Amino acid sequence: MNRIIGGMLWLKKQDITIPCAIDLSDCGLNKIEEDENEIKIGAMVSLHDLETSSTILNLYDGMISKSVRDIVGVQFRNLATVGGSIYSRFGFSDILCALLALDCDVVTHVHGRIPLSKFVHMKYERDVVTHVIIRKNSGKAIYISERNSATDFPTLVVSASLLDNKWKIAIGARPKKAMLLEEFEAFDSFITEKEIDMICDEIENKIEFDSNMRASKEYRILLAKVLVKQAISEVMEGEVCK
Amino acid sequence: MQVNITVNGKRYIEDIKPDLLLIDFLRNHGYYSVKRGCETSNCGLCTVWLDEKPVLSCSLLAIKADKHAITTLEGLEKEAE
Is B53 on the interface with A (CB under 8 A)? Predict the structure, then answer.
């Protein structure tokens, strides 16, 4: 089966034969474009270009840049692509979790523009991710990752945002791929400590956690409760816990 | 496939196999400072500069370095002295 090679970092680890490797480097997809309302990121933008782009650094206090900076090393991030990361929807993906908390769409050749929250649950089809588009809603977004050691895969990741007075919380590296805590959208912009405790108590019933070599299911559940509370608190700039 | 790759200022124009990795292209030409460490794209031992950007030569096809300039440690010898 022919493959689009993206950055080829994870593809290289697979024991497969690729009769025809397709490289999109010359398709003009290595740009980050910005207009009044949106930021359009080409699929071939490297994770390091994303990390260091002034456009991305200026968005939500560099939340997306922070989400990729612990991924392996600069040499790796200079090759890994946004399109490859988003298409693959890896369980350990930092950037997938970060973008899920934002108002973000994916553009694919077959489906056109679709919400990332929908794309994340779709099957792996013969399709090409061409762009990721982030709407510049007003508000705050933060990203927290927990790693056993620097540059390792994350043990758990949490992203949270309060954009246009609407909450979004995503949890990834569960170790399955990131997903949104849907119920959060119903909350007001100010969440009380009692409400946070209530949400955290329910996390293990709403989100499926599991064990792998990096952490046990039980540890991840405890970690999720702490990180979600911390994330909400940081988004509300410490105004929680009243 | 024909490639045109400049390594430490020296130009190589030659036919290569499409699946040749950049690390193997470089070592085939005697640039032994470039080493294969982990084979999992993690360790960074195979790092070279691609147009002054550090990349993992173990994870990059040599064809993608076509019309680009590569710098290995050998190319920094004078600077090191």
Answer: yes
